Amino acid sequence: xxxxxxxxxxxxxxxxxxxxxxxxxxxxxxxxxxxxxxxxxxxxxxxxxxxxxxxxxxxxxxxxxxxxxxxxxxxxxxxxxxxxxxxxxxxxxxxxxx
Length: 98
Prior knowledge:
The chain is of the alpha+beta class and 98 residues long. The chain is built from 3 helices and 2 strands. 59% of the residues lie in helices and 14% in strands.
């Protein structure tokens, strides 16, 4: 017998952040595919696609990474001139409070 399926409504903590996370990725891909049909200059398409991919990287690193999973990373130069990478991650309790 078929049982009626329950519709589960999920309550996401940051739906706007998730939307922009996916939107920037999709915009670079869609621009490359769609504009290659209309614009014959590969250089213009390539430059704009790289700029959109750079914006996507910035959003993922600085916005989505911090808000969705609590990740931060950066590079520091110590007194000897060596490059040192710093990584931070919030625990689950801090993410649920924020």
